[in-house]
Amino acid sequence: MTHTTRLWRRVRHGFTLIELLVVIAIIAVLIGLLVPAVQKVREAANRMSCTNNIKQIVLGAINHESTKGYFPALADGAPAGQINASYAFGVLANVLPYIEQAQLQNLIDYTKPATLSGWKGDINPVHDTACSTVVKTFLCPSDGQNPLFANQSRTATPATFTSAGTNYVFNMGSGTASAAQVNYDAQFATDGVFWYGAKVTYKDVLDGSSNTLMTSECLLGPGGAAPASSATPPDVSGRHYVALNTGTFASNSALPGGWLKGGALVTSRPAECDTGTRAWGVMRGSTWFWGGRDWNSVFNTGLLPNDPATDCGAHGRGWFAARSRHSGGVNAGLCDGSVRFITNTVDPIAWRGMATRMGGETASIN
User: Fold this and answer.
1) Is the pLDDT of residue 353 over 70?
2) Which residue in 100, 172, 307, 315 has its CB near the most CB atoms, within 10 A?
3) Does residue 5 belong to any structural domain of this protein?
4) Buried b (16+ CB within 10 A) or exposed e, 262-289
5) Does any domain span residue 290?
6) 13-38 pLDDT, tens digit each
């Protein structure tokens, strides 16, 4: 009997090289489509969270006005006769009980100086715990920068301290100036809502609470050691500001908040802000606790939101724009409790008008 042996060839199923490349290409395309969509969803959520933060802060300030009869000022809560840089507790330090942070406020002894030597911002060690506490409500999730500014020096024990930063800064006016009234220095009465000992009430907001800015955003500075002076910014992030040479621009006690250059009042942006070798500041938004300097607590509308021009200041005076990582603009809280998104292309006249409490401007961003 003849046996026929059949040999069955095993058939292997799989992708050819071309098919595999096609699959990889399809996956890459899908990822390319998906990632931007996810990023848009994430940014929308971040922007909404930021809006809610500003809403809480603005309502906290309004509740402060209802309770105490005025909006919280820089140096609010300082002992009589001590409305100065040493006692310049920040606006955010005074809204704490109105945003469910009463426990944190209880850590602050307002009878003790906030800083050891005024303008230097060297925090008094008695306030270290409060000053270094990160408050989520004070941070915009779109920024993404580390909110802790560590290893700052002082002449006390311990010799260094850490401050917790904030993305939310307060309206100190239009950033314009004249010989009669200088409006870019938070030490003195500005045409805005916040300065040392301001105690502005709703009766003072003659332009209307729905037309007047209270707060907006800033980008946290990189902190650490300042970079070497240079003719160009260390980067294009908007986190650095120009620290003008103190020998070139001197403070002037005769004109409140005035800058002098060669004996003349500076009424417009100095050329030194934009040209030549410049020193760069790194501490924007570096503390919610202390409001003694322009770079950590306030903004004005001399520059547009996210302006390509660099923030610039000296002696606690200057031009500090509202800035954010939101696409196309910044969030801003108004004195009526509303929050609006202001685009980078807002009309400059209308934007400056929103910063004044009684300027009588007619231009609108609506």
Assistant:
1) yes
2) 172
3) no
4) eeeebeeebebbeeeebbbbbbbbbbbb
5) yes
6) 666 778 788 888 888 888 777 777 66
DSSP H or E run through 311: strand 311-314
Residue 117, classed as helix, strand or coil, is coil
> Taking 90 as the threshold, does the pLDDT of residue 70 lie above it?
yes
Question: What average pLDDT does this structure show over 362-366?
Answer: 75
Residue ranges in the chain assigned as alpha helix (H): 17-68, 91-95, 102-105, 128-131, 294-297, 348-355
* 285 backbone dihedrals φ, ψ, rounded to 5°: 65, 25
Highest mean pLDDT among 10-14, 96-100, 234-238: 96-100
When mean pLDDT is compared over 52-56, 227-231, 348-352, the highest value belongs to 52-56
Determine how many CB atoms are found less than 10 A away from the CB of residue 217.
30
DSSP label of 316: T
Instruction: Name the region of 306 (left: φ>0; alpha: ψ -120 to 50; beta: rest).
Output: left
Q: What is the pLDDT of residue 268?
A: 75
The C-alpha R_g of the chain, in whole angstroms, comes to: 26
Structure tokens at 362: 């007619």
* 235 in any annotated domain: yes
The domain in which residue 140 lies consists of 40-355
Tokens representing 299 are: 């903004």
Instruction: Extract the tokens encoding 295.
Output: 């770079």
State phi, psi for 52 to the nearest 5 degrees: -65, -40
Q: What is the pTM of this model?
A: 0.86
Does 345 fall in a domain?
yes
* Sign of the alpha-carbon torsion through 159, 80, 75, 186: negative
